[in-house]
Amino acid sequence: METIRIPNSATYSPVSLTDLMIAAPMASRLLIGATLPGRLIQAAAAGAYAGSVIGDWASRRGVRKIDFLATYTSDVKHMDEMPEERRREDIQRFSGELMEIHEPVRRSRELLAGDINERLTSYISEITGQRVETSSSVRELTLARLMLPFAIGSCDILSGDVAVFRNTGIFEPHILAHEFCHRKGYLKELEAQAIAYLALSRSRDPVLRQAALAERVYRNLRVLDGDDPARYGELLEETPLAGEVLEDFRRLRPPDQRPGAFTTAMRELYDSRMKLTGQNGLSDYDRGFTNFLYTYEQAVSEGRAS
User: At what angle do helices 109-128 and 206-224 cross, to 10 degrees?
Assistant: First the structure.
């Protein structure tokens, strides 16, 4: 099988090169009262960043990406609306399945990231006949956390630098898989959501599989709650979820979580950016993702996909 290795050299830097380019001059001015040292660091970081981006771009030129419409009979622009009753059935079914296979996440993030990256690489190669090998490095903090306060993780699509901002318990494997999809060249959020789910849900590793189920349940809940955190809590109480799994769902969307003006403005900006790049906006994370699964699974049941 053909193998393509994307270097992702920026991901191995002790600190984010993007953050260095932005923050070095300001930090230098504040700490020592001069901007020149900061600008020298900024220039060095910019050079290393540019080298990483060029290297990754050259490697990606030979990547064969999954053709979503041909493979799944659905893509970001071709989906059927999932009926509300089917969403409720999905929530009950997959919540129950999740509780049956649940086991606590004990692996370190580093080990988990390596397992997830390999699973993702293997799943994609089964479809494309090509192994696209990438870094499994993950940061805990970047400046993106301040710019996207509503986000749990981020990926610099040019350098492949991935960060996960907080511990999300059972959800973490899917979040990592989602960001690693971006690193492998799948830039649309719905595509990253779908590939991450399909790869993990077909894994023999219960920790990876339960993360996929949790993501599916959570996104259906988000569609049904009508953007009302209190309603989300009510819907949670109607599920079979219990114990630490239920707590993970509650922490992901606390009942008093109301966005401030800055968060709302950034969400609107990000939504607009997604639409400009041929996506449907932030709804691709939940309504789009679940509609995609509904459309694809209908095609599988009818023998039009596998």
Answer: 80
